[in-house]
Amino acid sequence: MSDCIFCKIAEKEIPGNIAYEDDKILAFHDLDPQGPVHVLIIPKKHIASLDDVAEEDQELLGYILTKVKDIAKDLGLVNGYRLVVNCGADGFQTVKHLHFHLIGGLKMGWPPFTNK
């Protein structure tokens, strides 16, 4: 998608601090980290949100989930991490490209936010 910032990062049209890349996915450091480690994992295929996942995307999403542990390990997250997906305006999805927030490097609590 030509106006998607994450697609532009995946296509190397704009720079990103890349943590992991292969032919299907890209992981890059978040510009506004919410922890000592905070990367975004995206499919290179443009999918706007979880609401737009099609049956044909099952293998790709499964692939992403199997790579999370490897990316976390490579980033030194040995005591755990949090994986977050925001969906839609109320879910605080600010970029309309499916992405997974991999956050770690600190002990997290619950609930993760307060409702303001």
Q: Determine Rg (CA atoms, Å).
A: 14 Å
Largest sheet: 5 strands, antiparallel
Q: In the CATH scheme, what's the topology name?
A: HIT family, subunit A
| Strand element count | 5
Please name the fourth-level CATH homologous superfamily: HIT-like
Summary, kept brief:
With 116 residues, this protein is of the alpha+beta class. It contains 2 helices and 5 strands.
Report on the architecture of this protein.
With 116 residues, the chain is an alpha+beta fold. It has one domain (5-104): 2-Layer Sandwich (HIT family, subunit A). It has helices spanning 5-10, 58-74, and strands at 18-21, 25-29, 37-43, 81-84, 100-104. The chain has a five-stranded antiparallel β-sheet with strand order 1-2-3-5-4, with helices on one face. A hairpin with a 3-residue loop joins strand 1 (18-21) and strand 2 (25-29).
